[in-house]
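Propose amino acids for all 139 sites.
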């Protein structure tokens, strides 16, 4: 079982610590009492989705002997004005750099991550429409 601890540090700043000991600072906007010194929890949710799916995709591509030399993702979320704390649409763009990267392998790796492996994406997909795109840069 994975666990984490979240602790109030000051004002609206919290520190979340995982079992591994790694910590992340979360903070609210100054307009609601925060000091803007950390990420918003909703931003961390998008980063967690990117990290989860990115690890899946890279792992699958490496198993398929794809020569990946660089990898980047851009994750964006849309929330309605009336309820800005709930994502209704999320888009994830994968940018894969490498030599002789197969478009079929990339497409399949993303499909497996989003459809089967990434727990964060599966959870977010219950509330938001998730779309994706990818770009392969052959070096």
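Proposal:
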């Amino acid at each position: 079982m994975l666990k984490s601890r979240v602790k109030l540090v000051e004002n609206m700043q919290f520190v979340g610590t995982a079992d591994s000991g790694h910590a992340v600072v979360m903070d609210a906007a100054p307009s609601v009492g925060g000091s803007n010194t950390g990420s918003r929890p909703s931003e961390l949710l998008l980063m967690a989705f990117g990290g989860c799916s990115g690890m899946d995709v890279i792992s699958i591509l490496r198993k398929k002997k794809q020569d990946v030399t660089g990898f980047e993702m851009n994750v964006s979320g849309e929330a309605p004005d009336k309820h800005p704390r709930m994502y209704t649409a999320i888009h994830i763009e994968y940018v894969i750099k490498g030599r002789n990267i197969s478009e079929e392998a990339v497409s399949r790796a993303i499909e497996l991550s989003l459809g089967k492996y990434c727990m964060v994406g599966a959870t977010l997909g219950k509330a938001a429409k998730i779309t994706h795109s990818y770009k392969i840069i052959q070096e």
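The chain is about 30% helix and 35% strand. Helices lie at 41-63, 103-117, 119-124.
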